[in-house]
Inverse folding.
């Protein structure tokens, strides 16, 4: 199977009703992944190479996979680009207000301690 | 140094102002640790052997340490017993309403999927 098809077939996403809170908490408990989510809250969809994070591509791919498998982000292929979006409606439908509570707490956190 | 003193010296707790959101999210992202926290929300302080969790003592000690070092729980020695309490005031002072939001979301979660 060509590499591009293997990559495409790896883009699995849980249904909204299957999003698990502990997976979401785990996905958010990392500074790079938190930066990805905060960036997406400000902008609906971004190409994968455009996030303001300073990690190796393979590490970034890992972080995207954790977020995707937890149901936090949706990714789609478009030719040679992979686009990433926040599943805000799905998350809010499942856990109303929770993502905003966590992101707001993180802003408080970032203002009080170096992070 | 006697074993009891070594154990006692290991009970370090972060100051309330140093509680880090990502550490808290990581600490809560586990079913055993979530059960400990939910149990403590219903009861101010419990002896360590009395939590409704089915894990080996060494595993439980690990989970308590993760929660303690994240600032989620406080532990104290009293003779041969170790007592555990939720740092609800410290957490609410640092991240108002967040713990309740997460625990409420977990109730929703538990009602919708097996967890």
């Amino acid at each position: 199977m060509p590499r591009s098809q293997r990559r495409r077939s790896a883009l699995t996403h849980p249904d909204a009703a299957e999003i698990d809170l502990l997976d979401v908490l785990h996905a958010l408990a990392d500074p790079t992944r938190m930066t990805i989510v905060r960036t997406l809250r400000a902008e609906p969809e971004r190409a994968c190479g455009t996030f303001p994070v300073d990690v190796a591509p393979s590490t970034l791919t890992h972080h995207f996979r954790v977020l995707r498998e937890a149901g936090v982000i949706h990714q789609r292929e478009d030719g040679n680009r992979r686009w990433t979006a926040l599943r805000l409606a799905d998350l809010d439908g499942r856990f109303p207000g929770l993502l905003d509570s966590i992101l707001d707490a993180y802003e408080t956190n970032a203002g009080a301690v170096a992070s």
User: Anything to note?
Assistant: Chain A has one domain: 18-107.
